[in-house]
Amino acid sequence: MIEIKDLTKSFNDNDVLRGVNLKIGKGHTTAIIGSSGSGKSVMLKHIMGLLKPDSGCVFLEGICVTELDYKALKAVRRKMAMVFQGAALFDSMTIAENVGIGLYNNNHKKMSRQEISEKVTECLSVVGLHDIEKLSPAELSGGMQKRVAIARAIAMEPQILLYDEPTTGLDPIRANSINDLIVNLQNKLDVTSIVVTHDMNSVERVADFVAFLHNGEIHFEGTVEELENSTDRVLQNFVKGIDELELI
Fold first, then answer.
1. Residue 166: which residues within 8 A CB-CB, separation 6 or more?
2. Separation between Cα atoms, residue 19 and residue 86, nearest integer Å
């Protein structure tokens, strides 16, 4: 469904992506792992068309997303939704307004205010939240804010869900609940999910496939079982949290 081909991106003298190649299958959950600053979030932004590469392309169902003009890109983006790191909720809006914001501004599918209200309640229920529509983000815990962000994403009925560090800042119990929610949504909605994370517990819980980004390239790709059985030193040092500099 998604193919990243020879993707490169630099910021000033920093070569973040150095020829990334990766295929992401439809209907699966693919975890992209790598150290902080390795370019994981930059990859997500290229998939969404938020960044233009220096070279290479991101193909969605055979269409090069990174070469589309603004109008065509908007049509492609309707197939995707991103859950941003930190939830990225609007503090000045109620929870209902946050979840429904894309529906109010959706020129592709006109909905009445009543229909939007019902859709908001439905999506909040799917992520396990009830009777919070009138609250503000500041009145919610970090875990609940993450769930609201996921509700906002699925309200647009995307084919592809992108998660940027979904468990960052959460304690282990709430992190596990978000992981379970990602799995449940995958099964319930039959979407293609891409999870950017450095949380190996999250990878083991949610992923069908794993891609390890290292030095601007895909260093490893395979199943979770193949990752666990790999003897690759660089990969295993990352998985075990070993700093290679400490080994010198």
1. 83, 85, 146, 150, 178, 179, 182, 195, 197, 202
2. 29
Report whether 242 contacts 64 (CB < 8 A). Answer: no
CA atoms of 47 and 245, how far apart (whole Å):
32
Q: What is the pLDDT of residues 106-137, one digit of tens each?
A: 655 678 889 999 999 999 999 999 999 999 99
pLDDT in tens, 198-242: 888 999 999 999 999 999 999 999 999 999 999 999 999 888 887
165: Cα within 13 Å, side-chain hemisphere: 16
Q: How many residues does the chain have?
A: 248
CB atoms within 10 A of CB 18: 14
Q: Label residue 173 exposed, middle or buried (CB < 10 Å: 0-12, 13-18, 19+).
A: exposed
Cα of 98 vs its chain's centroid, Å: 18
Mean pLDDT score, 144-169: 92
Q: What's residue 223's pLDDT?
A: 95
